[in-house]
């Protein structure tokens, strides 16, 4: 379990190199500074940003296959409702050679995401600054979304971006098993729930 900020940093350090850690340190500082101007993360989570947000996002990488992250996978990683960049911008900072698309409709958050992407030098990461419903569909190698929409709605909105190969990694907090149960059995069978490493009661809905 990842409980402390030290645990979280050590866990993420095991997934990346010194440059990746430097990008994430820079991103954490940008989020904390911008959080004084707009509401990006709950104030109570500021002292725990590595555990609650960065490691919580980074763990998604361990729930997709190597092929999904490799150069032959089709399409970008697609993050829905990225807000300040969780989990999508963390994924981009850890995998700077993989194309990543962040979809976010709120203009001030889009501005923040674009400035953070530029500051971190993430040339393969871009923002679709509009509602997902208006984004021209493309095949995605993986789809992530944290605190974006109820599962059935999320799957329906993301369907135009999904192929048979598309992986899903959906942190769903404590409602994961219950949300999965609410799906039709034929759809439910494609997914399973993994335990979150940052919250013993939370689950991640996964299609590998
Ligand atoms: C609760 S926040 C979660 C942000 C981030 N994923 C996180 O976990 O910190 C949901 C975000 O999704 C965005 N959003 C909601 N519906 C959307 C839509 N249909 N298209 C694009 N963005 C949307 C909101 O503007 C908001 O920033």
TrEMBL record:
Its UniProt entry gives the catalysed reaction(s) as: guanosine(527) in 16S rRNA + S-adenosyl-L-methionine = N(7)-methylguanosine(527) in 16S rRNA + S-adenosyl-L-homocysteine
* Statement: the UniProt record of this protein carries the keyword Cytoplasm: yes
State a GO cellular component annotated for this protein: cytosol
GO MF annotations for this entry? rRNA (guanine-N7-)-methyltransferase activity
Compartment(s) of residence: Cytoplasm
Which keywords describe this protein according to UniProt? Cytoplasm, Methyltransferase, rRNA processing, S-adenosyl-L-methionine, Transferase
Recorded hits in InterPro entries, A to Z, give: rRNA_ssu_MeTfrase_G, SAM-dependent_MTases_sf
**What positions does the entry give for S-adenosyl-L-methionine binding?**
81, 86, 132-133, 146
S-adenosyl-L-methionine: present as a keyword of the record? yes
User: Which positions make up the signal peptide?
Assistant: none
Chief localization: cytoplasm
What enzyme category does the UniProt record give?
Answer: transferase
Known EC number? 2.1.1.170
Give the PANTHER family listed for this entry.
S-ADENOSYL-L-METHIONINE-DEPENDENT METHYLTRANSFERASES SUPERFAMILY PROTEIN
Record-stated family? Belongs to the methyltransferase superfamily. RNA methyltransferase RsmG family.
What is the annotated role of this protein in its UniProt record?
Specifically methylates the N7 position of guanine in position 527 of 16S rRNA.
Name listed for the protein in its UniProt record: Ribosomal RNA small subunit methyltransferase G
In its UniProt entry, the species of origin is given as: Erythrobacter dokdonensis DSW-74
Q: Kindly list the organism's lineage.
A: Bacteria, Pseudomonadati, Pseudomonadota, Alphaproteobacteria, Sphingomonadales
